[in-house]
Amino acid sequence: MLTRLLLLGSKRYTSLLPLLASGSVAPIQNILLSANSLSKAGLPTLLSQQQQRHKMASTEESNVPAPAPEAEKPVAEQPAAAPPAKEKKEKAPKEKKEKPKKEPKQDQADGKKSGGGAAGDAKGGLGLKNSKKDNFGEWYSELVVASELISYYDVSGCYILRPWAYAMWEVVQGWFDKRIKQLGVQNSYFPLFITEDVLNTEKDHVEGFAPEVAWVTKYGNSTMDKPIAIRPTSETVMYPYFAQWIRSHRDLPLRLNQWTNVVRWEFKYPTPFIRSREFLWQEGHTAFATQEEAEKEVLDILELYRGVYEDVLAVPVTKGRKSKKEQFAGAFYTTTVEAYIPETGRGIQGATSHCLGQNFSKMFSIQFEDDDRQKQHVWQNSWGLTTRSLGVMIMTHADDKGLVLPPRVAPKQVVIIPIPKANTPPEMVQAMMDKVSEFTAALEGAGVRVVTDTRANYTPGWKYNHWELRGLPLRMELGPKDMDNKAVVLARRDTGAKESVSWDDVVARVPALLETIQADMFAAAHARTADCTEVCHSFEQFMTALSNKHMALTPWADEEEIEEEVKKKSTTPDAMGAKTLCLPFEAPPLPEGTKCFYSGKPAKNWALWGRSY
């Protein structure tokens, strides 16, 4: 390839000599610059893509921090350095569609244009090079880019959410936002910046976030008199104004939510969606007159979080309460939904709902006058769900072909692909396209999210692989034989099963099949995780469970010292130590006299332990 480029450049330079003499073209140094740009768009670009894959590698199985990924930027800039039109014409024969074996090259070009989107293996084909079972970290890192969910940014730990990913977040937003509004919660927005004095108001709270707080110390070339923090969370931003707005019991409850971004300058290894320095979330902040009202809301919100994961994302979760050591800094107590990834043997916190008690209201003087004209401090909650939820869903369902999206969260639920043959008469092709339009309108009228793929420059096989990589739940095929039989073929992404459906039944069958897929995906995920919990009554059993990449359910004395000691003692050269994921709400009875699995002291509760993200 390089030799061909050099020969081509030499011929062009020779042909330009008469023009240079006449002054009809740009100076020779500009021509050399143009050749250099061509070089930058060729071999070095391919090298940077390989480097990018290494930089994207997750470090779940390693203690070595992943280097900051910077390969995405050159790929995104590639169109600006594209070869001139003449050179494109000379390369055109490589993309003849009548030769199906050339399809990977077409995809490689498409991947370049999209900044790493539909790219596949090293040969440029669709699909993934890494295996979920054999190399989970590399597989995940490759998948989120190849399926066009994210692009890497030139600030380490920050990622660009591409439209396919953001559309999923909008589905989650819409589902959750509708339901919190039914509870009486209102949306609002508070500033991104926090003064140092306000951030330090609640000592325990700020100490919990201090290592992750990013500070603005300069504007232009000037140093600021006082640094300003970028919010890691908004308790200290909002509560001074709660104190202004709440005067009487008639001002309660105050229930606010905001959809926003936060910055936490993580020192741990960044992983797209799972752990990043900037992420999107919702954070709810509420105030009540009584403890009973506050605690009821904590569980109401936790149930909605369960619904996001299980009903929308088809991911099974465990509801429970965090240990004192793991609870939110400054909270009275924290409740959580915990997910689990069997392939890595790690738990992952899905979302949390905190009862803050009266701690913050005392710090910020948030008081109300009760019916007896006595001053009382309010009871407060805060609760949050982030784009991490998408990462958990991806890890749970995706396979070696790409994403596998539950229908309820999929931006598009059905792709309709007409498959005319080369010898199909034009009138038959037109009739096929008309039928595609008819099905699209009818399905959209039934509430189904539809996309059609009528691109003539890609073969049906390429299209199938493309939409499989992006995880679309259902594919509808319509070919000449289907036109003759007045039927379509429906193919499921989750199982690969196909069925023929008559035209008259399509509008009824597709929504029903999507619901079946949703239920089947949850059932399959639940079955995979159901066997990943072992009941352990000794530390030896506990370590065996961890070695099996399982969670351990143990009787526990509920002491922070024990939790810290277990974490240290369960650390191995190859894996981090285990911690409590939660104290599950649903647990076996705890007979009187049951001993703690580690200390031998009387057990107070059951604890679910595991290694975690």
UniProtKB/TrEMBL annotation:
Residues 85-113 have a biased composition (Basic and acidic residues). InterPro entries: aa-tRNA-synt_IIb (IPR002314), aa-tRNA-synth_II (IPR006195), aa-tRNA-synth_II/BPL/LPL (IPR045864), Anticodon-bd (IPR004154), Anticodon-bd_dom_sf (IPR036621), Pro-tRNA-ligase_IIa (IPR002316), Pro-tRNA-ligase_IIa_arc-type (IPR004499), Pro-tRNA_ligase_II_C (IPR016061). Residues 114-127 have a biased composition (Gly residues). Gene3D superfamilies: Anticodon-binding domain, Bira Bifunctional Protein, Domain 2, C-terminal domain of ProRS. The keyword Nucleotide-binding applies. It comes from the Eukaryota. Keywords: Aminoacyl-tRNA synthetase, ATP-binding, Ligase, Nucleotide-binding, Protein biosynthesis. It is an enzyme of class 6 (ligase). One of its GO terms (biological process) is prolyl-tRNA aminoacylation. Residues 166-406 form the Aminoacyl-transfer RNA synthetases class-II family profile domain. Residues 47-127 are annotated as: Disordered. This is proline--tRNA ligase. It comes from Astrephomene gubernaculifera.
